[in-house]
Amino acid sequence: MMDWAAGKDDPVLALDNISVQFDKRCVLKNVNIRVYPGEFIGLIGSNGAGKSTLLKVILGLLSPTQGTVQVGGPADGKGERLMGYVPQKLFLAPDIPLRGRDLVALGLDGHRWGIPLFSKERKRRVSEILEAVDAARYADAPVGQLSGGEQQRLLIAQALLTDPQILLLDEPLSNLDIKSAYEVIQLVSRIGREKGIAVILVAHDMNPLLGVMDRVVYLADGKALMGQIPDVFRSDVLSDLYGYPVEVLNVQGRIMVVGGRNFENNGYPREAICCESNEVL
């Protein structure tokens, strides 16, 4: 496999030999990942493959059993954080007394009680980031009454407020319609390229990301493969990763991962394989 990152800047994220074990169950096994400035990474894997565990390790919320995590260079002294994070789910009651700009501002003051007080500089920064994600029209709207796609834009703005080097998004497309999901993907991709922010996006379906991903991280059985799509999504490569036969199909430009011809003969049910990429199982 070719070194995609040859000649690039130093990585903003380096994971070396990361393993995570809970009791006797090994969730991640010797995971090695390099992510570079402005790169868009899709993190793909079945339920229970370790995606959420890997995000927790990157965020520093979980210490690995083995291995090291290095995130970017130091902050520039102005309090900027190295990582912005958009969680998988956020329930906002329809009657919550919170405007769009208030939700975004929590990216600066979320550790404090109550609604943040705005200085002129904070107002300017919030307005600037709302414009950047094309959400200025939601600034004074009650967030609980906005659509899922509109709320997602505000959460992305919140995560970008401190100019992070890395933007982590945990399944941001899961509750969106097709149009909203496409808009969120294009938005995140554009901002990552323009600002040189590395993006790691966890998704159930890889296909919406095909036009924007630089590389993909595929998790299965606690192990990880990282590379460009043609290098990772091959029958022989994924069969080796899973330890049993897998077929990768390209149907009208959409990638599907299915159990191989000898899959059931080896004692494995066809539905056992799930790469969550519009698979046919």
Automatic annotation (TrEMBL):
<protein>
    <submittedName>
        <fullName>ABC transporter</fullName>
        <ecNumber>3.6.1.3</ecNumber>
    </submittedName>
</protein>
<dbReference type="InterPro" id="IPR027417">
    <property type="entry name" value="P-loop_NTPase"/>
</dbReference>
<feature type="domain" description="ABC transporter">
    <location>
        <begin position="13"/>
        <end position="246"/>
    </location>
</feature>
<comment type="similarity">
    <text>Belongs to the ABC transporter superfamily.</text>
</comment>
<dbReference type="InterPro" id="IPR050153">
    <property type="entry name" value="Metal_Ion_Import_ABC"/>
</dbReference>
<dbReference type="Pfam" id="PF00005">
    <property type="entry name" value="ABC_tran"/>
</dbReference>
<keyword id="KW-0378">Hydrolase</keyword>
<keyword id="KW-0547">Nucleotide-binding</keyword>
<dbReference type="InterPro" id="IPR017871">
    <property type="entry name" value="ABC_transporter-like_CS"/>
</dbReference>
<keyword id="KW-0067">ATP-binding</keyword>
<dbReference type="InterPro" id="IPR003593">
    <property type="entry name" value="AAA+_ATPase"/>
</dbReference>
<keyword id="KW-0813">Transport</keyword>
<dbReference type="InterPro" id="IPR003439">
    <property type="entry name" value="ABC_transporter-like_ATP-bd"/>
</dbReference>
<dbReference type="GO" id="GO:0005524">
    <property type="term" value="F:ATP binding"/>
</dbReference>
<dbReference type="GO" id="GO:0016887">
    <property type="term" value="F:ATP hydrolysis activity"/>
</dbReference>
